[in-house]
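Lecture 7 notes. Example A: sequence first, then its structure tokens.
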Amino acid sequence: MDIDSMVKSMMTAKKAPLDKMNQQKQLLNWTRESYREVSSKLYDFRYNKLITKYGSNDVLTVSKAVVSGNTDAIKATAGSKANGIDMEVSVSQLATKTTVTTAGAGSGKPSTSTLASLQSAFDSSDPTSDAAKAKEFKLVVNSQTFTFKGSTDIQTVISTINDNSLANVTVTFDETTGKLAIASKTSGTDGKVELGSGTDDNTLLSLFNKKNQTEDEWTTKTGVNSIATINGVEYNNSGNTFTVNGVTITLLTKTNTSGTDVPSKITTQTDTTAAVDIVKSFVSDYNTLIAALNSKIDEEKYRDYAPLTDDQKAEMKEADITTWTLKAQSGLLKNDDIIKSVLSEMRAHITEQLGGLAEMGISTGTYAENGKLVLDENKLKTAMEANPQKLMNILQGPASAPATGIFDKMASSVFNAIEKISNRAGTNRYSADLTSTFKEESVMGKKLKEYNSRISTMLTYLDNQETRLYKQFTAMETAMNKLQSQSSSLFSTSS
């Protein structure tokens, strides 16, 4: 008897339910992956486009600040609230930060040097000894106390102090001079670098002195505010960047460096180029997204192409397997309710403002184009030159009600879709990563758990069935062999 062939033949029929479950599980996994792809596109459109790229107040501004006269002294950028007033700017003082600088530990001191090695320059101690490594050095700045052992290197000292937000200072080290500098993070007269007054409060700074370790071997420069005169009015600021008449001005240098004041002049011009480019980019991003979503819900579904079993794959060529699998994966999200809903909502946000958008050169395509936006650049440019605020109000919403703008409305609808997909498929609602793991407590995650449990039970059942069949056929073969032996013996005796 060919027991293996007989058992295999009988088990094939018994394995049919298992194959069916594995196919259903595979379809569920493929569907989750399709949802993750959709969620990734939605996340990218919402966070990277609607919020980050198009959500800024100034992205649709049509004002451009032009600096003439002393073009080296200032930089100017017009914002959305630029009022077009010309300005003459004279800069008499730049804002600086309060800074404490040591005399220097000498050249040739890399930032990897330890504090013990700096100490050895004063007392000729062995920097590798346990005592030198254990010796402590202290710094008190802005009421924050730092203590370091001799084994600590300079770069660690710097990062430790800089990472302390309460100290509010930035420490730098010049390897060419060995000077350590401590600067306030806040510029102007508000910035401070207040050292401790105790006897041992500044032993760390003493290491970075050339001559000796007395506490007066460092210099302090107090920060000052910037002073600029704009159209005859003096402006005193803690920083070098501030906004006047809707224009952000950055002071770069004094205007009277040669002894004679050479002021800078700022004029505001209308320039629709950047705003038009932003609208073009939005239209392109929107059209790309809805095309991708429409392709999912319109994709043909081949119901006769189920996922292949291992046995089926074993009898097929690799190219045929690929072709079959592509058809089996097609149409998994056909007519999906979540995708159809978000598409409908986004189109509604456009339709609500279609009259105003049409006046600005933005319209929808034909019915067959499924809500695609069409842009007339010349019409948009002309409309923005005439009334730039109108498009800003439509897309971003007025300053008093930004949530009424198309961008905010779309962002809300897209987020709702991302959440629904996450609840159903277990996708990460805060990432566009296509390799992110799925949440098990989603609808599909629970369904997969159920499949895994049923498959495990079925495998145990089939294993028991196979064992039983082998035992039965083996016993049958043994009995038949015994009967054959008895028959042979009987015939032999008769003859």
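Example B, a different protein, same format:
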Amino acid sequence: MRIILDTNIYVSALISKNFRQRLSRIFDDLSIHILTDSLLMAEIEEVITRPKISKYLTPTDRDSFVTYLKNRCELVDVTSLVSISPDPDDDFLLALSKDGQANYLITGNKRDLLDLKQFEDTRIVTLTELLSLLG
């Protein structure tokens, strides 16, 4: 299985122990390929340094988290351009899903991405929906 986790999923895992425990089921399953690209990594790194988020993390925690992601995730070289999301800032995730041949894009973005439900071969779901599908 090939999946993409939206930045809001990573942030929720960093600030909520319960969310982190739920997400660990995915990270612990090495048959699940977690996809990322340079844009998603840059967004994650930028968001976790914002004062609203960084108050939950030490600089060492942030660095360790980014290093873990770089080691755990599969880096995709994205060449596609996509312009379909209601929020143009999310189009890079859809391009990643296309070039990374993702089965699922997991997001908490209830307004825009989840409204699409699917993009090409990628289903767009919440973490709860994915965990339910995994059984």
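Note on Example B: The longest strand covers residues 2-5. The longest helix spans residues 59-72.
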